[in-house]
Amino acid sequence: MTDILHLSTFLRRPIFDQDGDRIGRVQDLVARLGDDAHPPIVGAVIRIEGRNLFVPIRKIGGLAEGRMTFQGPRVDLRRFERRPGELLLAEDLLARHLINLVRGRLIIANEIEIAQIEGRWEVVGVDPGRRPFFRRVLGQRMGQRVQADAIVDFASIEPFVSHVPSARLRIPYRKLSKLHPAQIADLVEQASHEEGEEIIEAVGLDRELEADVFEELDTEHQLEFLQSRSDVEAARLLARMEPDNAADLINEIDQERRLPILENLPSHQQVKVRQLLSYNSDTAGGLMNTDFVSVPEMATVADALEAIRTSNVPAESLHAVFVTSEEGKTIGSASLGSLVKARGPELAVSVARTQLSHVHPHWDLHRVARKMSDFNLTVVPVLDEEHSVMIGVITVDDLLEELLPQGWRKEFGMTAVEE
Predict the structure, then answer these.
(1) ∠268-270-276 over CA atoms, to 5°?
(2) Phi and psi at residue 97, in whole multiples of 5°?
(3) CA 218, 223, 228, 233 torsion-angle sign
(4) CA angle 38, 42, 48 (to 5 degrees)
(5) pLDDT of the chain along its 419 residues, tens only?
(6) Full-model pTM
(7) N or C: which terminus of the chain carries fewer CB neighbours within 10 A?
(8) Contact assessment for residue 154 and residue 125, using Cβ atoms and an 8 Å cutoff
(9) Which CATH code fits 4-162?
């Protein structure tokens, strides 16, 4: 099995020449970021007579034995200057936040692990455990080698650019986009402001994903990341959010910015948001989403399924299609499951529940919760006070999010930082 060595084994320790004489002290190891899953180590930064110098890896021996030696006729005395794409393992990674893309968590790199693979030294992982932290702080060796199952594979890790200012890289969108928006939001909330900005910037390549992530952020972070945006930019983001989430956020924005942002929303979104803002946020009207799928009572099952396919309504609101009369009255709801099981030519109303369980916009959220629980509903329609016109829907996930206490993830130990 390949031996895995700690970076701390070499830091601030002597480097010797081939005669065994000490010539300087090791300051850092340098790796090159690129397409490699495990960045290759290209050299070391050593300090000689008050100057930081670079020694290429081909002139370094003794790594496997934990005793670094210089193998060459003379040291290049030019001061070390980081080149684009180079990573200083101690300065850029050690004790820093990194993203574990497999688990969707932040980890703290309490130790950096290196290994020689097929003749090349590579960064193979980090150890986020407490043991390396105490070894660094207390200066104890506590063993030079480590078992491979104790580390997080570097192939699943992404560093932050703010830690590597000359790397000229960005957190890759394609990697982050594999995570759920709620996972990305957790990362942002646990990160520093600069780290959070990097994540938001990365997902910003996909405006829909950016909006989804913003919806998952707590109010404090939403406002934090809106501060640096103009009213137009803020409106552009809110326009891609669900109307109920956009309305909630506008309610939290400073008074002087609310109207300018609202007026910069597209007209169709502005109408929906203004409607929602007319309700108390603690009522069904304040929680509902005004986007839903409905079909006329003469529509077939095939028509209803096509309406779902072509709809821009978010997936969580597509558990049912609502059937309306010629007068616009909602007369039933057909679940997605019943529509899929039915034959295409059948009328959608024939598989719909005509005894419509519903709520009204003035109902408080606990009353809404009782209704949804009693009738085992994942989505419930909101009807106007005359019991005829449907004005929105409430989904169970939105209701749960509203009823759970602020910071419930932290309270129940669902932190995004691994130690």
Answers:
(1) 110
(2) -75, 140
(3) positive
(4) 135
(5) 468 899 998 999 999 988 888 999 999 999 998 888 899 999 999 999 889 999 999 999 988 888 889 988 788 878 898 888 888 999 989 988 999 988 888 999 999 999 999 989 999 999 998 665 545 444 544 444 445 456 899 999 888 866 565 554 456 778 888 899 999 999 999 998 888 988 998 898 899 999 999 999 999 999 999 998 999 999 999 999 989 899 999 999 999 999 999 999 999 999 999 999 999 988 999 999 998 999 999 999 999 999 999 998 877 678 899 999 988 889 999 999 999 999 999 999 999 988 888 999 999 999 999 999 999 888 899 998 876 789 999 999 889 888 877 655 555 544 445 55
(6) 0.74
(7) N
(8) yes
(9) 2.30.30.240
Asked if 191 contacts 163 with a C-beta cutoff of 8 angstroms, the reply is: no
CB-based contact 63:116 (threshold 8 Å)? yes
- Sheet bearing 105-108, strands edge to edge: 157-159, 97-100, 105-108, 417-418
Q: Where are the beta strands (DSSP E) in 137-274?
A: 145-146, 152-153, 157-159
Which residues, including other chains, have CB under 8 Å from residue 174's CB and lie 6 or more apart? none
Superfamily of domain 294-399: CBS-domain (3.10.580.10)
CATH class of 168-282: mainly alpha
